[in-house]
């Protein structure tokens, strides 16, 4: 009896210690996430300033402030308002779209290789846009609508080909990769049959570029984000729960299939809107979420992927515009060169984990 009485106080003493450890771990994780968020915001601010003010034509800080205030007359006014500022703002907005699209794909499919560009969604939008540009002679909002339609049609075809709503995740990813290859072949076929000038415009769009950034494009992407970001925020807790697996998420009260389909549809809209303006910029959607997870120790959230996507676009555009004297490369060239090693790294790491 005395042993029983002495055991109870021990259990009562150890229980609060365990709970306190859990709370302390959560506090440390939250502090780390806040530090990463703050660091990404500061990095994006510094890189955006460098993209606006530091280039072939350097704008001093007092002049930049005067230009933004509307009280400056001179060449810096044109450089900032017509060239560097719209490119930077459009790069941030489209980077947010690509980053969120990649995060949603990889989270609900639980596969770091399941991104919109790897699974062909970006190329579905690209094929529809190329047809609209080369064969239909369309531009502006018509290309945006065509991109949305192409991305949704390809995603629907991939889901149906993989087995419908009960498709296995691995089969879904492989089917998406195959669909991307077929879509690329279709794009090449359309380009070879098109007028050379129309094909040149379409090819520049396919590479992904911020060279022709316009304020009207910024308004289009901005309006889309105003509508889509609240939906993404509402869906975020369920999407994060699905990262632990379907059974665990279902046990937490998540309706797995509707959430998966809704998240994929939302990701398609994010990517299609961005691609309709700047083209299917390679690997930004693919790289953003893994980099965010690496910075946060595996707990990368949606806003981390969005900030990384924006940072990738701004930095890549600066490198593309300023790395080679006298040559302005499309931003897609730089992101493709940076994305290939990341893809190889993920493939090697995944192979080691499965061996």
Number of domains: 1
Q: Find the structural class using helix and strand composition.
A: mainly alpha
Largest sheet: none
Q: Please trace the helix and strand order, writing H or E for each element.
A: HHHHHHHHHHHHH
Gyration radius from CA atoms, angstroms: 23 Å
How is the secondary structure organized here?
Layout: H1 2-53, H2 61-69, H3 75-109, H4 121-134, H5 141-161, H6 169-192, H7 196-207, H8 215-242, H9 246-251, H10 256-278, H11 284-296, H12 302-322, H13 331-354
Summary?
It is a multi-pass membrane protein. Belongs to the binding-protein-dependent transport system permease family. FecCD subfamily. The protein has 355 residues and is mainly α.
Structure description:
With 355 residues, the chain is mostly helical. Mean pLDDT is 83; it is low at 1-8. The chain has helices at residues 2-53, 61-69, 75-109, 121-134, 141-161, 169-192, 196-207, 215-242, 246-251, 256-278, 284-296, 302-322, 331-354. It is globular and about 65 Å long. This is Iron ABC transporter permease. Its main location: membrane.
From the structure above, extract its key features:
mainly alpha, transmembrane helix, transmembrane, ABC transporter involved in vitamin B12 uptake, BtuC, globular, disordered N terminus
